[in-house]
Design goal:
Elements lengths: L29 H6 L3 H24 L4 H7 L3 H5 L5 H29 L7 H16 L4 H4 L4 H22 L23 H28 L5 H7 L3 H7 L3 H29 L4 H25 L4 H27 L7 H6 L1
Helix pairs in contact: 2-5, 2-8, 5-12, 5-13, 6-8, 6-12, 9-12, 9-14, 13-14
Length: about 350
């Protein structure tokens, strides 16, 4: 008996036009779909860091204090600029500009970690973010050492920290292989130190060590003495004279110094993890090159702009910048022309 054509479906059936099964209905909620495996939240954190850094550079370039800074001081940037040839204000801008560059660098590396190794579910990338986030967010607590609570910084931390933690929790469940922090000790590619890439990676590791050491020193100075002798010589004032101008001035400067130190330390730790654990690739080279260029350009470049050109003050940063440039150049061929040839963490674990 033939089927009645009047009751046959006229459009594509549930098996599709070519007989293929239709995809199952996606019954996830909107938030769950947007959050996904957690990487969008990590990327959001990275973008927020980049935008925050750009904003800090904008304030430094245009010569503005934040409203709560002026409220805390009880004086405007223009009023402070009228004292001691504006060098106190310029010194503060130099700290804030360098801080902006450091968090832009961290944000760039966050984006690369989320887009590549976390996508491949590599545990080392998760631990690298965990260490960086722990240091970066914890550095906010250094305000206890200088007595100034930056309300905008605090509000940003309260917004970003839950996003970061949520993203990290979701990505952890997707990781493959061993999830222990010891994965940070295994290299992403086998490279003898005698090769160009091996020497370049060593230079990048030295760069990272220099950033971490410099960050720890600056953060310690920020919560103790606040200034080094070269700082005071540039401003032409003593700490007591600064306190006489405004008793809240030193705590505000200390806040900027400690924040920059924390950002620098976090940058160094992330560079070390990416350079050592990351599989050589064009994306990794671009991320490291961009992060280093922005970081060093702001940290060093701001000094001649304000006339702070003390050789002993700039020598450590300039030396590390040269080592970084050598490392990036030595790694260029391996990273940009041999995509996918490095030994990944998963391959190493399966051998």
């Amino acid at each position: 008996m033939s089927a009645n054509p009047a009751i046959l479906p006229s459009g594509p059936t549930q098996h599709g036009r070519d007989g293929d099964s239709a995809p199952p209905a996606d019954d996830r909620g909107l938030i769950e779909a947007l959050v996904g495996d957690g990487r969008p939240l990590v990327s959001f954190t990275g973008l927020a860091l980049i935008l925050s850094g750009v904003f800090a550079l904008f304030l430094a370039a245009t010569g503005h204090f934040l409203p709560h800074d002026e409220k805390f001081l009880g004086m405007t940037a223009d009023r402070l600029c009228s004292l001691h040839g504006c060098r106190i204000v310029h010194f503060m801008y130099h700290d804030r500009g360098a801080f902006g560059g450091s968090i832009i660098a961290v944000g760039i590396l966050y984006l690369w970690l989320a887009a590549f190794p976390l996508r491949d579910r590599e545990p080392w990338a998760w631990w690298a973010l965990c260490v960086n986030g722990g240091v970066g967010f914890a550095s906010f607590l250094t305000y206890l050492g200088y007595g100034y609570l930056d309300t905008w910084h605090g509000a940003a931390t309260l917004v970003l920290l839950p996003c970061f933690v949520w993203g990290m929790a979701r990505t952890f469940r997707t990781l493959r292989g061993r999830r222990r922090p010891g994965c940070l000790l295994r290299p992403g590619a086998v490279a003898p130190w005698r090769t160009a890439f091996g020497a370049g990676r060593m230079c990048l590791m030295v760069t990272a060590a220099g950033l971490v050491a410099g960050g720890l020193v600056i953060m310690t100075v920020g919560v103790t003495s606040v200034f080094v002798p070269q700082d005071l010589a540039y401003m032409g004032v003593s700490p007591d004279e600064l306190r006489a101008i405004n008793p809240r001035l030193v705590p505000l400067i200390a806040h900027d110094r400690a924040g920059f130190g924390g950002g620098l330390c976090a940058t160094g730790l992330t560079v070390a993890a990416c350079a050592w654990c990351g599989r050589p690739s064009r994306g990794l080279w671009q991320a490291l090159a961009a992060a280093g260029t922005v970081g060093f350009a702001t940290a060093i470049g701001v000094h001649p702009l304000i006339g702070y050109v003390d050789v002993t003050h700039l020598a450590p940063a300039a030396t590390v910048a040269v080592v970084f440039a050598a490392g990036i150049l030595l790694c260029w061929r391996k990273m940009t022309r041999s995509e996918g040839t490095g030994r990944t963490r998963l391959a190493a674990e399966n051998q």
